[in-house]
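Translate sequence into structure tokens.
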Amino acid sequence: MLSSLAPLLACGVTLPFLLDELLSLAATGNTFLSGLLLGMMLDLDPRSLKRLALPTIILLAFWYALGVALGVVMYFWPGRMVSEPARLLLTIGFLMPVPGLVGPYALEFGFDPSLGSLVINVSLITSFIIIWLGLNFLPFSILHGGTAVLSSS
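Result follows.
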């Protein structure tokens, strides 16, 4: 349901007050849930890390290559039809981590749950780093121009 709201919000449609408050409440718990997920799924057994390193690298290389490709397309393709903050939001959306449901689905479909948890953990950390680097060092005019949307003051 929430993913169907993204195109409307990108076009400048505002949400009703109650829905906005509900979504902002869910957004405040996002940091806690990410940390909780990282702690629950963390498996640092050296044998499993050595065995799962190559599949994890292959999966995440595909995940982020597809994310970067779709992000670049969504940033440059709409052109002037969509505002720059909305295009930036769409680009960041494609660089999000692997969903936490990978672990339960791995168990349900008979895959290795250690691989699922390792992919989730590595993608959480990798996504945070990629998004942080992108927001801090790429020359987006909305970030480095006259209006500082993400100012630290």
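Note: The longest helix spans residues 46-76.
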